[in-house]
Every structure is written in structure tokens, then in C-alpha cells.
Design brief:
By secondary structure, the chain is mostly helical. The chain contains eight helices and no strands. Helix 3 packs across helix 7 and helix 6 crosses helix 7. The structure holds heme C (HEC).
Length: 200
Amino acid sequence: MRSGKPLLFALALIGALAIVAGIGSTAFFFGGFFNVAADHPDPTIVNWALVQVRKASIVRHATTRPPAGLLDNAAAVQAGARAYATIGCVYCHGEPGVESATFSEGLNPPPDLRKVVNQLTPEELFWVIKHGIKMTAMPSFGSDRPPVRNNTIWSIVAYLRKLSTVSDANFKAWNKTPIGSNWVSGCGPGRASGCGPGRE
Ligand code: HEC
């Protein structure tokens, strides 16, 4: 049985190390050493892992199909632009001709929808807007009171997919709600940085 001893010793060592690691990480996280500040960047590996987890989760969950014909319906696109401005997306993500609120600079990461809309399917956009994203500032609009209705969310998706072709003037015309001081004159297609949606 002598040959079994090194194996037992190795197993005991692994067990002891696991206990030490457990105690260490408990002390680290519950002792307040982990920094939750939004202005404290995550280590690259943590950031990478979070993005992969987010993408995989969205892909797996986003199964609801869009109502037929809605995504290319001009009235739906306009209704989506209006909803986008009135229910608050504009504060964090900005808009054609509208600067996002300055607090969106402190969002981690600052969400630039112009990039995202080409990377996500309509189903994925719908799911993100309806359910939000845990541990980020992205809220669940399906949990609003009253909840934003599925048809409204689909119209926002229709609008987002046309985002790059919507002119500032059209966006303003479609919105009855004044967005006030957030309108900025210098923004438009080929807009300068600091203009919505999202910031560079
Ligand atoms: C309070 C700020 C805030 C508001 C309001 C908000 N968002 Fe977001 N949104 C975020 C943040 C922060 C992220 C980035 C989350 C991440 O990186 O995981 C995000 C991400 C997204 C994404 C991309 C998800 C991805 O996988 O890359 C979409 C699409 C989106 N938001 C659409 C919207 C729409 C449409 C609205 C309005 C109905 C809205 N957001 C309102 C903060 C906000």
C-alpha cells in the first residue's frame, strides 16, 4: 500500500488548499476588499468573462419572434422612436441629435447602441429591453409599472434597426415630448463625439 501514500498526500494537500482559498476569498469579498465602484475598471479577464457570459445568456434566452411585418413598418419605426425618447432610453444611450445625460459618461461600460444594433438579432434586442441586464445599469422595461408592452418593445427594436438612417429632423418631428436642453445642434449623421446614441 506504500504506493497509495503520495496520492493520499496530494489529495489532502488539494483539500487544504481549497479550504485556504475558500477562507481567503470569503475574507476578500465579505471583508469589503472587492471594489464595486463603477469608476474602478474591472481587470481585463473579468471584463472578458462578463461579456462572454452576457452574450451567451442573451443568445440562449432570446427566443421570442417578432410579429410578422413589424420590423419594416414605417409607423412602427416612428412609434419606436417616440417610445425610445419618452421611456428614458435617451438619457443613457443618447439619440440622433440628442446628447445623452452627462451621467451616462459614468456608466460602465458606456453603451453605444450604434455598434450594438448590428451585433444583436431582433430577438436579442427585444429580450435585452424587456428583461434588462443584471449587474449593469440596463433596466428591465418589462418590469416598469405599468410594464412596457411587448408591441412597444418591438417598435423600439424596429426603430433601433433603422437607427443609422433616421435623421435628426425626423427624430425630432416624431417626438411630441420635448427633450429640452439635451438637444444639441452639432449632432447628426457623422456626428461628433459627445452626441448620441451612446458616446465614443
Ligand atoms: C439607466 C441607464 C440605461 C437606460 C435608461 C437604458 N439603458 Fe440600455 N444599457 C445600459 C447599459 C449600462 C448597458 C450596457 C450593459 C452591458 O454592457 O452589459 C445597456 C445596454 C443596452 C443594449 C445592448 C446589450 C448588449 O448585449 O450589448 C441595448 C440594445 C439597450 N441597452 C437598449 C436600451 C433601450 C432600447 C432602452 C430604453 C427602452 C435602454 N437601453 C435604456 C443603460 C441603460
